[in-house]
Specification:
Oligomer: single chain
Structural class: alpha+beta
Strand order of the largest sheet: 2-1-3
Largest sheet: 3 strands, antiparallel
């Protein structure tokens, strides 16, 4: 007769450790993509940001089951302005829309950001395209 050298609790603990490591990798991937997106949006924004507010309001958050895990961006790009505050306020309002799963949210928090996009200027469009390309590629690499 073979006697196991482990218990069901050992198996459960091992599985939970594996899940935690996998989740850490997912968060890292989403953080990397978030950073790439804000860099893309700030660098390639095709609008004239006279006050610095719009670029300062660009940032991201990574959520797990509706709870913030990582946050970035919202950096002051010119002196003065309230873009950082507006971006942080906006992203905090958006969090409640994503109560489950892993989510990356990238925002331009100024109220007029969508108006600028509608005028054929790039605010977040190129960042969105970048995320749509990068996330599946990185997640695929994670699963291999």
């Amino acid at each position: 007769m073979i006697t196991p050298q482990f218990t069901p609790d050992d198996i459960e603990r091992m599985l939970q450790e594996k899940i935690a490591k996998y989740e850490e990798k997912i968060v890292r991937i989403l953080r990397i993509v978030g950073e790439k997106c804000i860099n893309e949006a700030r660098t390639n924004g095709s609008y004239q940001d006279q006050t610095g507010n719009l670029r300062s309001s660009i940032g991201y958050i990574v959520l797990k089951d509706g709870k913030p895990i990582e946050k970035g961006g919202f950096k002051l790009t010119k002196s003065g302005g309230n873009g950082q505050k507006e971006g942080e306020t906006f992203i905090n309002k958006v969090i409640s829309q994503y109560p489950s799963g892993f989510v990356l949210v990238v925002v331009a928090g100024m109220k007029y950001a969508s108006y600028v996009e509608a005028r054929n200027y790039n605010v977040l469009s190129s960042a969105e395209l970048l995320a749509e390309k990068e996330v599946p590629k990185l997640l695929k690499a994670l699963s291999q």
